[in-house]
Write a structure and sequence with these properties.
about 325 residues, Rossmann fold, seven-stranded parallel sheet, about 15% strand, globular, binds 1,4-dihydronicotinamide adenine dinucleotide
Length: about 325
């Protein structure tokens, strides 16, 4: 099958080419994000292969459809960036990689917790400058703290497991409690989680229900000094509200791997440009905020799985046999 791979970074090319070695697909790599401007690049390609910041709204899907695209193969688990209703109407099949390495994301969330707690990023810079003072680096024992997990799917449960290993108590909220959750995971209502957790980590998808779930009223219910971690999707957090929470001291630590306006920033080198997102730049001024640019998934294992599953989806679509991880349109999403 002819596949137009959008947002194709060198690492995507490496892993997809490797996974395609035993197959016969024709891969064309485009560095550009998929948008209405770049969609014409996919004319004549039966498959468009997209990542998290590609823009698959009704206009783009219509363009893909006109150009002969019948399959959108997402290299991500999340599919909030696809207008599934439009895809269904146009007869475009959407496939995704459901769980490429939940460990990668959960472990990165833990890395954010650990770094923020012990301020290792500040300590690193200090030591390089010959500054061995400890003021401002005071942490706390994780042991005995209460960790709130919002969304207990593949990633949330692994995160819960790791934090339980530190001796934390785990409270969780999920409208669909996971039968695979271990006995130490205490499901509680959201307001109880907010009231009890010292650390809150977001592992739910972006849906109409979770859009700006963490807003001013949610923050007001949290413990003063709470640590908030988001490796889910940017829009789950209302950035304006967390900036206010940081300024008032209500939020004590913020760790983000995702940001609601990340499309304009992440995965590219902007170091020689003026960044005009004032909200993002304000976030970077806080000493107790640690931001990574959507790298939680970025491990050898995850990239191998993403490439393998993406091409297996395409194989299954083409042959009509094998497992196709199809995203089914649900009016609620
Ligand atoms: P999953 O589908 O296994 O689990 C999601 C869980 O969230 C489910 O148990 C679901 O019931 C729950 N949920 C749904 N609505 C909820 C709500 N309103 N409140 C609380 N929980 C709710 O998904 P998985 O694989 O664990 O991934 C979670 C999210 O992590 C993805 O949707 C994606 O947005 C994000 N992600 C981020 C990556 C990164 O690199 N930063 C990489 C991969 C995923």
């Amino acid at each position: 099958m002819r596949i137009a791979v959008f947002s194709a970074k060198p690492y995507d090319q490496t892993f997809l080419t490797r996974a395609n070695a035993a197959r016969r697909h024709s891969l064309s790599f485009f560095d550009a994000r998929l948008t209405a401007e770049t969609a014409p690049l996919a004319v004549g390609f039966e498959c468009g292969c997209a990542f998290v910041n590609d823009h698959l709204d009704a206009v783009v899907l219509e363009q893909l459809h006109q150009g002969g695209t019948r399959l959108v193969a997402l290299r991500s688990a999340g599919f909030n960036h696809v207008d599934l209703a439009a895809a269904e109407r146009l007869g475009i099949t959407v496939a995704r990689v459901p769980a490429y390495s939940p460990h990668a994301v959960a472990e990165h969330a833990v890395a954010l917790v650990m770094s923020l707690n012990r301020m290792t990023f500040r300590a690193y810079n200090r030591v390089r400058e010959g500054n061995f003072a400890l003021d401002g680096l005071l942490g706390f024992d994780l042991h005995g703290k209460t960790v709130g997990v919002i969304g207990t799917g593949h990633i949330g449960l692994i995160f819960a497991d790791i934090m339980h290993g530190f001796g934390c108590r785990i409270v969780a909220y999920d409208p669909y409690p996971n039968p695979e959750a271990k006995a130490f995971v205490e499901y509680v209502p959201l307001d109880t989680l907010y009231a009890q957790a010292d650390i809150i980590s977001l592992h739910c998808p972006l849906t109409p229900d979770t859009d700006h779930l963490i807003n001013a009223s949610a923050i007001a219910q949290m413990k003063r000094g709470v640590m908030l971690i988001n490796t889910g999707r940017g829009r789950v957090v209302d950035t304006h509200a967390v900036i206010a929470g940081l300024k008032s001291g209500h939020i004590g630590y913020l760790g983000l791997d995702v940001y609601e306006e990340e499309e304009q920033l992440f995965f590219e080198d902007h170091s020689h440009k003026v960044i005009d997102d004032d909200q993002f730049m304000r976030l970077t001024t806080f000493h107790n905020v640690l931001i990574t640019g959507h790298q939680a998934f970025f491990t050898q294992e995850a990239l191998t799985n993403i490439a393998e599953t993406t091409l297996a989806n395409i194989d299954a679509f083409e042959s009509g046999s094998g497992t196709l991880h199809r995203v089914v349109y649900d009016k609620r999403t």
